[in-house]
Design goal:
By secondary structure, the chain is mainly alpha-helical. Helices cover 72% and strands 0% of the residues.
């Protein structure tokens, strides 16, 4: 399947059996889309992922990395605030992403 075809079909990650497996697959899709600078598609996968999967920190770290890697630092920080509001705590991978976003925003002032 070509990348252009993949963006038209907008695959979803469903939580049917094991939430951790589904969250992993959704996070992987987010990362792949981000690598090709398809942030809109990455966000669609993230937004359409069921709430049970969003309690998984890997999902949040993937979307945060997608935004910070593509220079969308304000959006990344807004997502971090949303992550904290839903009760998901960051880890040793989350905080460098947040710090990077803050640093890049302050250097562009």
């Amino acid at each position: 399947m070509l990348l252009g075809q993949a963006t038209r079909t907008r695959p979803q990650a469903h939580c049917r059996h094991r939430t951790s497996d589904s969250a992993f697959l959704a996070a992987l899709l987010v990362s792949v889309y981000a690598r090709f600078e398809l942030l809109g598609d990455a966000r669609i996968v993230f937004d359409e992922t069921p709430a049970e999967c969003k309690s998984n920190l890997l999902m949040w770290n993937s979307i945060l990395r997608a935004y910070t890697s593509n220079g969308c630092n304000e959006e990344a920080l807004e997502l971090y605030v949303e992550m904290r509001k839903v009760g998901v705590l960051g880890d040793r991978f989350t905080f460098p992403l947040v710090m990077r976003g803050c640093a890049e925003m302050s250097s562009s002032i």
